[in-house]
Amino acid sequence: MVKITGFDKLQKMLEDASRAFEELDGKIGEVSFDPNDAASIDDAIRSMEIAIDQKIGAFKSNPMVAQLIPQMKAKYRDGIIARAEIARNNHS
20-43 in b/e burial notation, b at 16+ Cβ within 10 A? Predict the structure, then answer.
């Protein structure tokens, strides 16, 4: 007979990941910035990264969540940069 172990650990990891994803459902944070000021854009990016960490930081030891955090930060960083570029182009 083969004994399979680790399901409890996997189940807990999946439950924690599910709770982390629930934390990300909805509003994560709100930032404002001057699209013509690189420092303001950087501050907005840092603020969003902090908001993400606060939302799911309690779950960062979970490997599923840990690999999601940099992806989320990159997605929002790219979004802020894109919005700044659009705003600059609309006011040119």
Answer: beebeeeebeebebebeeeeebee
Which of 55, 52, 63, 49 has the alpha carbon at shortest distance from 17? 63
> What pLDDT does 52 receive?
92
- Residues 15-54 have pLDDT tens digits of 888 888 887 777 888 999 999 999 999 999 999 999 999 9
SS3 letters for 1-52? CCCCCCHHHHHHHHHHHHHHHHHHCCCCCCCCCCCCCHHHHHHHHHHHHHHH
Q: Where are the domains of the chain?
A: 7-90
Tokens found for residue 27: 């509003």
Alpha-carbon distance of 28 to 53, in angstroms, equals 10
